[in-house]
Design brief:
This protein is α+β, with helices and mostly antiparallel strands and 880 residues long. It has 27 helices and 29 strands.
Length: 880
């Protein structure tokens, strides 16, 4: 366990844009007084032996004489450490002391190192890993046999596995990188190649151009048998890099990224500052991340970047776009301006999540992507309404805690809070504030309040207090709505008075005293175009809403809060549900469902909205309906008679919609319709629809002889239905297909479906298979977590019984989260004790956040099923 010292003093030279006083507040693990300014790295990887040798010369500034210098290092072996003073004056060799637990190395010199500039020279060696941490290897099949490629992954704290360094975001420096590689392989870095020299003997020396000042976690290197395609966007060379033969699959990403770059240049008011920007696709997976924003060299696992017509869906296409937009936003928010410490991680992730949505709405309005933000907000509220939540800005003390900070609060709640604040101050003022923030902190570090200062100045409107309420404290506000009688006016219109009361939406502490928020609230009468706004303060608020009729609160769904209507007010909204805008339909049904499960509203209110959803509702609204119905189906484990009755009703609700959409795509149909088709096939397969299951199996069986049987956009949903409903023969057939498949995207999907079987015996076979060498090294963990979706108790018990082997299949950043997280979907009270015991025996006290979340999820699920299922069962019986 690492111990971080809050309130450490760092030399102001670390980030010139910040004052010495500001620097003094930044958390650091390291002793103060020595800071890096430049790294000159030369290394030689040996992919076959999974090792590398290296030497680095680090320019450092020493604030006061010292005999010791401590920096971060993990799994590195030191051969020689020397220091030279100004003008090359020798300072002597150092004795090296390594603290493996703290991940540090301390160099002790015979004589004090004088104040001033010095060069620290280190010869060392290290490991190449097989999971995504540090410098790592990924193996993949080709028609020519097995191939191996190398990549790096340093966020959040794994650069120290590759280079002894000040491996914390506040310590920015420039980098010169030189590497000796096998001739004929492509080397990729943050910067373009400055020169290349043939060394003979099958080796080539590659030197990259000097990088801008950046944090260690943004450094990147890749090596392999790659293809690269480029296009010019102004002065920037935009590229995509894939393993050989896959460039065509990256075409959508390449064509999308150019307009995004130009739009971001304008939005941020600062042009992208590097000469090139590569998008690099790699086979494999991670339990921690799908893509990483290394400056100038963004890394993606293939499923996040490549569009393969043999298997990619419309959802995949949209996810590729949003992922590219997300990672490119980081080139400013995270790379150009970096949070000072992991407490403010949301400045990177929440902002990039919001920006991906803005870019998608701008360039692809046909996707109606703003509706997707409601799903993200719902996910965040699900986490944020449990006692295990945390503020958006949270204090981080250890590497494990930094890894666990990459969650739905940081990403989705962060995004939702930005949407709310942007709506409050207006999009132009928000953009102007962001531009000023980027200008003020470019090439330096910042904290959250630095952003609020600039936005408040640009808006001329106080937002800091509101922002603090939503970022410095956890939880979800609850706005209770009571609408009075409309007062008609002489023009035939009128105004409807609305009383607003602020509480808190808590799923596991119903009696807690609510926290206080200043909540921006908007409302409008259903069918009206006039929106009324107010700020609820001190727990109370009121609105006079233009028009007569049912009042929808949180109109447009920009607010981060739950809306609870009085029964009379809800009756009016429910009666008008079919006429509401799609985004408000999503908001109203989502609130009703969450509040119903929590016992604060009749759960049947949400069920009535399911039945009231019009046939021509937006496909994403129908996606929410399908999600609610499949969630309920999952609650009926162990109650076959009740499940059968519910399934009859659920299939009857979704089947007519699927009949309209059909199995076959229509020419020119909208992207959301294609997504709904895949959603309904999967949902109806989950609900046991005999017709859909039979047709999916028929198409799967016909795939070898009929090219039209399984079109690419339907391959995943068809495989999902076949895999879930597989018997032993079908499971063996899927496995044989997986063993023969050479394309990683398709192969990984086949192994994933082997792990999705509802049959417990087949799920057990998948768990055993996951720990063999048959799946790829990075796919095993995904198979185990896929089993956990339907069989959480089995997956957790298996992982605990094979703890060391399972942890060996998980990247370092996920190891404190992976095994405890497998239990989240359980409804067995015994699992609470099991997870708690596992955490106590295997995890440091400060690294048990994921275990706590699993316990909270299990407890909530048990409570919810006990309270909600009888109501749903009675409602189902009444409906027929």
């Amino acid at each position: 366990m690492l111990v971080f010292a809050a309130g450490s003093t760092l030399a102001a030279t670390v980030a010139p844009a910040r004052s010495a006083a500001a620097a003094a507040t930044v958390t650091t693990q390291l002793p103060r007084g020595v800071v890096p300014t430049h790294y000159d790295l030369a290394f030689t990887p040996d992919a076959d032996k999974l090792s590398f040798t290296a030497s680095v010369k680090i320019d450092i500034d020493v604030a006061a004489p010292t005999r010791t210098i401590t920096l971060q290092a993990a799994d590195l072996t030191f051969a020689k450490v020397e220091i030279a003073g100004p003008g090359g004056a020798k300072g002597g060799a150092a004795k090296v002391s390594v603290d493996a637990q703290a991940q540090t190395a301390t160099f002790t010199f015979d004589k004090p190192v004088a104040k001033g500039a010095h060069v620290l020279a280190i010869d060392y060696s290290g490991k190449i890993y097989k999971q995504a941490a540090g410098l790592f290897a990924l193996d993949y099949d080709t028609d020519q046999g097995k191939k191996r490629a190398l990549y790096t992954q340093f966020e959040n704290s794994d650069a120290r596995r590759f280079i002894p360094s000040w491996d914390e975001p506040f310590f920015k420096a420039t980098y010169d990188v030189q590497v000796t590689v096998p001739t004929g392989q492509m080397a990729v870095g943050n910067m373009p190649i400055a020169k290349s020299r043939d060394l003979g003997g099958g080796k080539t020396e590659v030197t990259f151009a000097t990088s801008p000042r950046m944090s260690t976690y943004l450094l990147f290197f890749g090596l392999g048998e790659f293809d690269r395609a480029t296009t010019k966007v102004g002065d920037v060379e935009m590229g995509v890099i894939t393993k050989k033969g896959d460039l065509a699959k990256a075409d959508f990403a390449l064509k999308s990224s150019g307009p995004i770059l130009q739009w971001y240049n304008d939005y941020f008011g600062a042009p992208y500052p590097l000469p090139k920007l590569d998008h690099i696709a790699a086979p494999g997976q991670s339990q921690f991340f799908s893509a990483m924003e290394n400056w100038g060299a963004i890394f993606y696992f293939e499923y996040a970047l490549l569009e393969d017509p043999a298997i990619s869906t419309q959802t995949d296409r949209q996810n590729i776009y949003t992922t590219v937009a997300h990672e490119m936003a980081h080139q400013w928010f995270g790379d150009l301006v970096t949070m000072s410490w992991w407490d403010d991680l949301w400045l990177n992730e929440g902002f990039a999540s919001w920006m991906e949505g803005r870019a998608t709405e701008h360039f692809h309005p046909e996707w109606n992507s703003q509706l997707g933000a409601i799903g993200g907000r719902e996910y965040a509220m699900g986490l944020d309404s449990l006692a295990t939540t945390h503020p958006v800005v949270q204090h981080v003390e250890t590497v494990d805690q930094a890894s666990q900070a990459f969650d739905g609060i940081t990403y989705q709640k962060g995004e939702a809070v930005i949407r709310m604040l942007e709506a409050y101050v207006g999009p132009d003022a928000w953009r102007d504030g962001v531009r000023a923030y980027i200008k003020a902190h470019a090439h330096g570090s910042s904290t959250t309040d630095d952003l609020w200062v600039e936005v408040e100045r640009a808006a001329g409107k106080p937002i800091t207090a509101i922002a603090h309420d939503f970022t410095l404290q956890p939880g979800v506000p609850l706005i209770t709505v009571d609408a009075g009688a409309c007062a008609p006016d002489k023009d035939g219109g009128g105004k409807t008075p609305v009383t607003l009361t602020q509480g808190e939406f808590s799923r596991d502490k119903p009696a807690k005293t609510p926290l206080a928020w200043r909540v921006p609230v908007s409302a409008q009468v259903a069918g009206s175009s006039t929106v009324s706004k107010t700020l609820v303060e001190g727990g109370k608020g009121a609105l006079s809403v233009e028009g007569c009729g049912p009042v929808v609160v949180n109109a447009g769904q920009a607010g981060y809060f739950r809306t609870l209507y009085t029964p009379r007010a809800f009756a009016g909204v429910s009666a008008s549900f079919a006429k509401l805008p799609a985004i408000d339909q999503l908001g109203v049904i989502s609130d009703a469902w969450a509040l119903g499960l929590n016992g604060q509203q009749a759960v049947t209110d949400a069920m009535d909205l399911v039945m009231a959803t019009p046939a021509d509702a937006d496909p994403q609204v129908w996606g929410k309906v399908a999600s609610i119905l499949t969630d309920i189906d999952g609650m009926y484990d162990g109650a076959p008679a009740e499940r059968a009755a519910f399934r009859k009703l659920a299939v009857g609700r979704l089947s007519p919609v699927f009949q309209q959409v059909g199995w076959t795509a229509k020419a020119g149909e909208a992207g959301p319709v294609a997504t709904l088709r895949a959603t309904l096939i999967t949902s109806l397969g989950t609900l046991g629809d005999a017709d859909v299951i039979a047709e999916a199996k028929r198409r799967y069986a016909a795939d070898k002889t009929d090219p039209a049987a399984v079109p690419g956009p339907l391959r995943k949903p068809i495989l999902a239905v076949v895999g879930r409903n597989a018997d032993a023969a079908a499971w063996d057939a899927l496995r044989a297909q997986a063993q023969a498949e050479k394309t990683p995207l398709i192969r990984d999907q086949l192994y994933t479906q082997l792990a999705s079987a509802a049959d417990p015996a087949l799920a057990a076979k998948a768990l055993a298979l996951a720990l063999t060498d048959e799946p790829s090294e990075t796919l095993s963990a995904n198979m185990i977590s896929t089993v956990a979706k339907l069989h959480p108790d089995m997956a957790f018990d298996f992982a605990v019984a094979h703890k060391d082997a399972v942890n060996g299949k998980v990247d370092a950043a996920s190891r404190t989260k992976f095994i405890p997280g497998l239990a989240k979907a359980s409804a067995d009270p015994a699992m609470v004790g099991k997870v708690t015991a596992y955490a106590a025996a295997n995890l440091p006290a400060g690294s048990r956040g994921e275990a706590g979340k699993s316990v909270a999820s299990i407890t909530d699920r048990i409570k919810t099923r006990k309270a909600a299922l009888p109501q749903i069962t009675a409602w189902t019986a009444k409906k027929g």
